[in-house]
Amino acid sequence: MRVRLLLAFALVVLVTLASMVAVAATSTAGEVRMFMSGSGMMGIDLLAQDLEAYYQRNGSWAGAGQLLEDFRIGRGMGMMMGSASVHLRLADAGGRVVADNRGQPQGSLTRVQRANAVELRETGGGLAGYLLAEGGMGNPNAERQLLQRLLRASLLAAAIAGALAFLLAMLLSYRLLRPVEDLTRAAAGMAAGDLAQRVHPQGNDELAALGKAFNHMADSLERAQQTRQAMTADIAHELRTPIAIQRAHLEALQDGIYPLTVENLQPVLESADLLTRLVEDLRTLALADAGALRLQRAPTDLPQLVARVIERFRPEAEGAQVRLNLVDRSAGKAQQALLDSGRIEQILNNLLSNGLRYSPPGGTLTVDITVDGGHARLLFADSGPGIPDDALPYLFDRFYRVDRSRSREQGGTGLGLAIARQLALAHGGDLTAANQPQGGAVFTLILPLSPAETEIS
Ligand code: ADP
Question: What is the pLDDT of residue 454?
Answer without folding.
Answer: 44
